[in-house]
Amino acid sequence: MKLCIFGLGYIGLPTAAMFANRGFDVLGVDVDEERVKAVNNGSFEISEPGLKAFLRDSLNTGNLRASVEPEPSDVFIICVPTPVKDDKVPDISHVEAAGKEIAGVIQKGNMVILESTVPPGTTLNTLKPILEESGLTAAEDFGLCHCPERVMPGHILKELTENHRIIGAIDEDSSVRAKELYRSFVEGEIYDTDPTTAEFVKVSENTFRDVNIALANELALLCEEKGTNVWDVIKLANNHPRVNLHKPGPGVGGHCLPVDPWFLLNGDDGLIRKAREINDNMTKHVVQLVHRFSGGTVAILGVAYKADTDDSRHSPTLELFSRLDDMEVRLHDPHVIGYQNTLEETIRGANVLIFMVDHKEYSGIDPQEVLSLMDGDVVIDTRNCLDKADWEDAGARYVLMGNSKLH
Ligand code: SAJ
Predict the structure, then answer these.
(1) Which of 7, 182, 366, 387 is deepest in the core (most CB within 10 A)?
(2) Is residue 230 in contact with ligand 1, taking CB distance under 6 Å?
(3) Average pLDDT of the residues of the chain
(4) Segment holding 300, helix H or strand E
């Protein structure tokens, strides 16, 4: 069976490699010629653990090729980006473009699967009509499904096989065919429903997480006001069998959580929008913490949007950097290209040191050494990733976000 996969990004590429590894004839299509060339000659740089080797195995099977053009195939899978624009309006133009390309080569009996996260209704109201410009009719002439992905960056290969999947199929035949296809590598459950429900499931999952992080952040601000430690509150509250408070943080980054909730909003002003505002305002709170101490140089550790990844999309640190425009700021991140100066260069002479990301590389930092390099002594921990006693013994004024007792 021949598959044509649109979008060789952090989902499309592993998915293409997975299917190729399982013996399918896979053509990966991407608009970026450099990326296409790099995939074909195996020189594609990816930091995702294990993916480079896995991709090389898939290429060696001869089952995986990349091109900028689609070819007639049995199944077309769309894994292109679906960002939101600056005005928070969803941008599904890449999905529409892929649909138009497929309409040019689709044949009777083919199937189209949309994996990209989209506003509910997109598969039936936007993609289906574009595909039918081919003169073929969905369900009657070709299958159509929405099958959202849920892999956690950093654990993609593992989660591609272990996570449960949802197939939102336009009809029974599409559901059966899509299930059979994904069963080639999915070991989790495969649930079926309609396309719009599947779209709603995906955006609801990430909105659930974003709203719960906003609750944790709001509790952190309240604890600072009321004089207790939110980290103790969360740890003890989560002993309750039905409570799962998330962790406060300096903001919510990545290209999913800050994006997907907007796919559910069209003007309404409720909880989901408020949660987005709370999370986006956390960098303002970190600025307030910094401004409580005299000026001077600020050293910031961690530019990625979360620990142990090199992805800095919607990074809270870059947002914080732009808000600290009145101070000299130095950034460091062992994973993100452009910020890999030495820790010493970053910290030397700094008045304030902020831990914005709890990369595992930072867990071994020696407080004594750091304080001897700094001019000041303020250390702000936004992730509760440092040992208070160690840093205070080294002479730091240790500030834990969400715990006013310490500042
Ligand atoms: N964060 C907090 N507090 C928390 C958890 C996370 O502040 O308790 C922050 C992180 O620091 C990060 C941001 O939120 O800046 C997002 O991190 P994340 O790990 O929650 O999300 P992603 O974007 O890495 O992955 C999510 C996952 N979705 C869910 O957990 C419901 C993943 O399963 C999805 O596949 C992925 O989005 C996606 O592609 O949609």
Answers:
(1) 7
(2) no
(3) 95
(4) strand 298-301
**Is the confidence at residue 154, as pLDDT, over 90?**
no
Q: What's the CA-to-centroid distance between 257 and ligand 1, angstroms? A: 6
Q: How many CB atoms lie within 10 A of CB 173?
A: 12
**Is residue 256 annotated as part of the catalytic site, yes or no?**
yes
Q: Write the DSSP assignment of 259-294 as a string of letters.
A: TGGGGG-SS--SHHHHHHHHHHTHHHHHHHHHHTS-
Q: Kindly state the DSSP code that residue 363 receives in the 8-state scheme.
A: G
* CATH topology identical between 2-202 and 281-406: yes
What are 163-205's pLDDT values in tens digits? 999 999 999 999 999 999 999 999 999 999 999 999 999 999 9
* CB contact at 8 A, 223 and 215: no
Architecture of domain 281-406: 3-Layer(aba) Sandwich (3.40)
Q: Is 85 a residue of the active site?
A: no
Please identify which of the residues 128, 179, 202, 306 carries the catalytic annotation: 202
> Average of pLDDT values for 52-80?
95
